Amino acid sequence: MRPILEILALAPVIPVIVIERLEDAAPLADALCDGGLTVLEVTLRTPAGLDAIAAMKAARPDAVVGAGTVNRPALLDAAAAAGADFIVAPGLTEALAHGARGHGLPFLPGVATAGDILRGLELDLTTFKFFPAETSGGVPAIKALEGPFPDLAFCPTGGVTLANAPSYLALSSVRCVGGSWITPKAALDRRDWDFVRTTAAEASRLPR
Questions:
Q1: Does 185 qualify as catalytic in the annotation?
Q2: Which of 129, 143, 146, 202 is catalytic?
Q3: DSSP H or E run through 154
Q4: What is the DSSP letter of 23?
Q5: What element of type H or E holds 57?
Q6: Would you say residue 48 has pLDDT above 80?
Q7: CA-CA distance, 138 to 53, in Å (whole number)?
Q8: How far apart are alpha carbons 202 and 182 in whole angstroms?
Q9: Phi, psi dihedrals of residue 155, rounded to the nearest 5°
Q10: Secondary structure E strands in 24-126
Q11: Which of 8, 51, 80, 104 sits a CA distance of 20 to 30 A from 74?
């Protein structure tokens, strides 16, 4: 298993994916990877999410496919059984942290405050998803947190777009960003893989 920091270093953007139809998983993974984004977060917000993880990994062995929106231990166990390469949670609990560690899976928990971070540090965690980024203060909030917590790494997610991603990526503590703009629902509904490939290519070229 790659450490979570190594996974975050693979691309400037992790697409946050909502899969409605399992048959879309393989062509979507192809489009994203062909566009240069090989770290994929499949949210477990739909019934197809768990099976989509396995389908994407089968279609693109070069991809690192994680499970997102993991909000309880049972879902973490199911994601591990589906073959997820890493776990992303919207928040941080001891049960999730211990569960990910028990499965040997890299864990990216969500934090939004100094208190969240302190609880993470008590669990020996130093890499976090800053979520929801824009409504939690965005770039200024992360800059403020860098003062008392200079050795942390963040992946801001939530309200991040192609336009504001460079401001986040310019911060010393930010390793990558997460974004859903690469795989918008309208494009997935019409199975516009060329659109996804283009947005992935734009995102993969973002400087950091």
A1: no
A2: 129
A3: strand 153-156
A4: G
A5: helix 49-59
A6: yes
A7: 30
A8: 9
A9: -125, 95
A10: 39-43, 64-68, 87-89, 107-111
A11: 8
The DSSP secondary structure of 67-80, one letter per residue, reads EE---SHHHHHHHH
CA dist 36 and 182 (Å) reads 12
144: number of Cβ within 10 Å: 12
With a CB cutoff of 8 Å and minimum separation 6, the contacts of 191 are 24, 27
Q: Token pair 């060329």 is at which residue?
A: 194
From the list 196, 206, 204, the residue with the least C-alpha distance to 17 is: 196
For the chain, domains (ranges, CATH) are 4-203 (3.20.20.70)
What stretch of H or E contains 153?
A: strand 153-156
Reply yes or no on whether 129 is catalytic.
yes
> According to the model, what pLDDT value does residue 2 have?
85
pTM metric for this prediction: 0.97
Distance (Å) of CA 101 to CA 104, 111, 132: 5, 18, 24
User: Is residue 55 scored above 90 in pLDDT?
Assistant: yes
pLDDT of residue 30: 98
